[in-house]
Amino acid sequence: MNVKNEELMKKINKLPLSPGCYLFKNEKDEIIYVGKAISLKKRVSSYFRSNLNFESYPKLKQLVAQIRDVEIQKADSEIEALILETNLIKKIKPKFNSLMKDDKSHPYVHITTNEKFPRILIMRLTKNEPREPGVYFGPFMDMKLLERSIDYLLRVFPASDCKRPIKENDRFCTRFQYKKCPGPCIGEISKEEYDENVKNIILFLSGKKEELLKDLHDKMDAASKNLQFEIAAEYRDKIRALERVVQNVRLSPETKTFFLSESVKELKKLLKLPKTPMRIAGFDIGGSETGLATGACVIFENGLPMKEEYRRYRMRSQGPNDYAMMAELIKRRYQRVLTEKLRKPDLILIDGGLGQVNMAKEVLNQLGLNKIQICGLAKEHDFIYFPFKNDPMTLPLNSKALFLLQRVRDEAHRFAISYYKKLRRKGTFESILDGIPGIGKKRKQALLKKFGSIQNIKAASLEELEETPLISNNQARIIRDFFIGEQTKK
Question: Regarding beta strands 311-314 and 304-305, do their DSSP bridges make them parallel or antiparallel, or are they unpaired?
Fold first, then answer.
């Protein structure tokens, strides 16, 4: 095609290969079309190829014939270009964007802000179609990219994308089970935290990434100054994950690239590991002293939590035996890893001391996984233990590597304990109490609430048992006689 303005082609040849939006102008210097691109130079150049099929796209032919100049606005990523494109089209209303849309439906993001727990929905709407109450973003031109973007965004700021309005329930759904929803319907996330996540999503979709990052940095700094290090770490993880969304949203899972975090680099160096611990698996047991224990496995990738890969377990081992339970947890997890050919970690971190680490290492050896590196981080003094080495290692208190290990350990502990509390609250544990005549779900809950553990129930006097809500004098005697009989059997 003959281009009337040679200066335009010179300008196009100098365009960057980076993402952004391009704005075509006509001879009156009016913006007539806005588009987005992964590579501005390649995309804009494509409009002037000699082999363009104008017969199939007559409106494209009209557009190209009127282009006299081009402006660009750079973006850090394709997702930012997508949001920028939408906002520019809405603000400028270019002639050819309207012509090319016709009456076709296009994807929008609908946030149902009129509900107690707003939902994040993607829907197709035509120009004049009636809309439900809430906030809308769009129209977006790329449905697949939009779906990937929202999926990544909901990992950073968990919120529900359920099709139906959220109602309080006592059962979790499969979306919660597979980490696709934070579970507002079952009380797994507070209203305040949920609202903050929705506010952050709105900021991001409004193109205010810098404002959002500044707000997260301010909250992280404030938490750190107040010595709330776990809260500060959560904000830090959100900042890093948000930056990763921006970098990786246009890439498929198989081709994702990572920027190696300083904490991971330092961890390899200080622990003298044979390979960089890009993938760390953390393990802990919750409620072991109660006889109603749970186990947890958390996964960190390049120093960031991968919550969709977390797993929790009801422990089958009897009695308050941390060593046996840790052995069971490691065995169950890595038997499945081997059977299903799942990705193995570069480092396993045990919440515990030398005994738990040795037990876990023996299980790994039995499974033929002796090449996986393993260590333990004890809560007292943050000693680091390696298998069959009596002398622990310590790291500087300001070490990024130590901070990462603490984060993995504390997250495994939090996940195990939260599951234990949830099951205890619902009275769904199978325990020795189930063998006592007349002790159902509610009475079991009452006993555990009052005494806190099976061991404390066993040691309770008849008078203490009688003071328990829902437990009659006769039932108190039955409970006491049951445990006396259990002790006699031993």
Answer: unpaired
Domain ranges of the chain: 6-101, 103-207, 209-255, 262-416, 432-489
Lowest mean pLDDT among 15-24, 260-269, 413-422, 427-436: 427-436
3-state helix, strand, coil in the chain (%, to 5): 50, 15, 35
In this structure, what are the phi and psi dihedrals at residue 73, rounded to the nearest 5 degrees? -130, 115
Residues in the chain: 490
The fold adopted by the segment(s) 262-416 is Nucleotidyltransferase; domain 5 (3.30.420)
Separation CA 261–CA 407 (nearest Å) = 14
pLDDT tens per residue across span 254-295: 223 334 567 888 999 999 999 999 999 999 988 765 556 889
State whether the Cα torsion 137-143-145-147 is positive or negative: positive
Could you tell me the two tokens for 109? 């993001």
Query: Residue 119: exposed, middle, or buried by beta-carbon count in 10 A (0-12, 13-18, 19+)?
Result: buried
Cα–Cα distance, 69 to 31 (Å, whole number):
9
Residue with tokens 């006889």: 291
Helix, strand, or coil (residue 142) = coil
Class of the CATH domain delimited by 6-101: alpha beta
User: CA-to-CA distance for 478 and 388, rounded, in angstroms?
Assistant: 47
Classify strands 373-377 and 347-350 as parallel, antiparallel or unpaired. Answer: parallel
Give pLDDT tens digits for 20-38.
899 999 989 999 999 888 8
**Cα–Cα dist 258/68, whole Å:** 40
Quick one: fold of 432-489?
DNA polymerase; domain 1 (1.10.150)
- Overall pTM > 0.70: no
- Do you find a cis peptide bond into 320, omega within 30 degrees of 0? no
